[in-house]
């Protein structure tokens, strides 16, 4: 229940390619229990496992792992076959090179490349030829390759920068969940930069762990946020461990051995605040329980620290555009 929820934007964006291919996805949304009204609400959010199911089902229905955004379909199973081709490589560099070579065998596949810049490595995507109005495929490819590489070596690859060849989109605030690093928009190319030391690391995965990995990937890679090492991410983990008591800012600052003023300043530099982080966590916990029948609305309100259910109703509608009752009725 501590997993971050997914903005409805990403579900809407994923469906654009299906619509382009002429696929009627209304039955799929009904099957998954996702109401069109929920997707139409700009502030609404969905549980990560539901987003994973949506992506997996779209891949199967379209037989296209590019979800209708590429110049040609990438047949279902391509990603799995690429993973089998790289799993026995001796280093991350060899694995990435072989993986990119695999996709280069398909003339219409999106082009990615690896280049060295002193001690840094840049993974670049040529998105100039993609039909990708909401940048869904571009974001997905960068996220998948970053998280695949991290999984292969058994540790998160720290990103130094994520650049995008387009201006900051309306959903740009969500990019912190995707990349957790400094961002640059309207750049010459879309790319990720990380230290070259990761390339020399051995792969810690094998055929056995790959089988489990492929049961939910790469959809699961898209629905899992990149928490990284930011103060915001550390605070979220801290608050989620003690969500029953909801410690205040002073208590959290003392736990981190810094002053409240310093804590506020660091969060401000990351573009957030303590109250905003707490509200986001409350929102995500509420959405977790509203998608199940384990707690009543009053019990959810109490668990989130609201003295009155009416206060919870007002807060939830402010967060998502829907009342808790309306949200529960639509999932």
Walk me through this protein's architecture.
The strands form two sheets. Strands 3-4-7-5-6 form a five-stranded mixed β-sheet, with helices on one face. The protein has three domains: 6-73, no CATH class; 78-220, no CATH class; 231-329, Orthogonal Bundle (Arc Repressor Mutant, subunit A). The chain contains 17 helices and seven strands. It is 51% helix and 9% strand. GO terms for molecular function: DNA-binding transcription factor activity; transcription cis-regulatory region binding. It comes from Pseudomonas kribbensis.
What structural class do helix, strand and pairing data support? alpha+beta
Strand order of the largest sheet: 3-4-7-5-6
Q: Roughly how much helix do the residues carry, as a percent range?
A: 40-55%
Largest sheet: 5 strands, mixed
The gross shape turns out to be: globular
Mean pLDDT: 89
DSSP summary, beta strand count: 7
Helix run count: 17
Q: From N to C, what is the helix and strand string?
A: EHHHEHHHEEHEHEEHHHHHHHHH
Unreliable residue stretches: none
Taken together, the total number of domains comes to 3
β-strand amount: 5-15%
Gap between N and C termini, in Å? 16 Å
Q: Mind telling me the C-alpha Rg? A: 21 Å
GO cellular component, one term: cytosol
InterPro entries: AraC-type_N, Homeodomain-like_sf, HTH_AraC, Tscrpt_reg_AraC-type_HTH
Domain HTH araC/xylS-type: 233-330
Pfam families: Arabinose_bd (PF12625), HTH_18 (PF12833)
